[in-house]
Amino acid sequence: MKETFIVKHAVGGPIFIDTKKEAVPYTVEPFGEGWKFTVSVPLNEKIRELLQFSHELNMFLFHEFEDAPTVKTWYYIKEGPVEYDAASEQLTIVADSRIEYVPDTFMKQ
Predict the structure, then answer these.
(1) Which of 19, 60, 76, 102 has its CA at a distance of 20 to 30 angstroms from the CA of residue 93?
(2) pTM score, two decimals?
(3) Ordered alpha helix ranges (H), 1-109
């Protein structure tokens, strides 16, 4: 299985993190009623912009399989904190909800 992690501003907005294009260490774990993402990334212009849109972020995990369709999980940030620790170069994002689906099962119009 191959996993891709993406963080972007709203639907159709700019992409701040895309592990398919640039390897970035991250973890995701259950956290209270939601999920906590911890990303090791230096502070740069993209991360500064990400922090400005902290309550309008969408995150995605794509799980790609050789013998099955890709599974996409869409995580939403509502009230969850989005913080950056400059000393450890760690971005922390807490997602409040998620939807998991298989994109290939949607009807194309």
Answers:
(1) 102
(2) 0.89
(3) 45-52
